[in-house]
Please model this.
Amino acid sequence: MFDLEGKRIHSITGFGQPHAAVVLSDSNIIVTDGDDFGRVALVNGKDYTIISTIKLPPGVDGAVFNP
Model:
């Protein structure tokens, strides 16, 4: 995570190759991980812990949020 000036403020651990991140209006973050993990993770935007994950089929590396 970076601030608006490009300074790193936090690293979120637990990912192999994160490909995309989408910040939701409630400050949570969706992150796709295309490495061996092959999953989408919902990350708490306040303390950066992984709240929940779902497994993905091979080759998925994008993120789009459809409410």
